[in-house]
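[job 4471] stage=fold_predict status=RUNNING
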Amino acid sequence: QLRLVESGGGLVQPGGSLRLSCAASGFRLGSYAIGWFRQAPGMEREGVSCIRSGGGVNNYVDPVKGRFTISRDNAKNTVWLQMSSLEPEDTGVYYCAARPAPVHDLCSRYPTNFDSWGQGTQVTVSS
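[job 4471] inference complete, writing structure tokens
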């Protein structure tokens, strides 16, 4: 399994913004698709967005389309999730994840297709 480390979560008021980072440790993530997932309290983990090594993007959650943007810089070994116009419904733990070879550069919305996960970062949207 690969080591991924998320950061950037926190408490933000509705309408605010956060940028989450997913940094690879001990490997180069340049050849991997990276997915962002979130898990709200009492809910199943859901795929939010995924970016392939070449920059192709899949967005999976209709309510965040237009508000969340995934991006990557392979030279910095990092993938970001820029979140804007945050809503209380966006509250949860956010995870980034990678898939195993040979499907490591294919995106998927399903958490079971990923086997390397970060520890998660808490996002709380509340006034």
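[job 4471] summary: The CA atoms of residues 13 and 127 lie 5 Å apart.
[job 4471] exit 0
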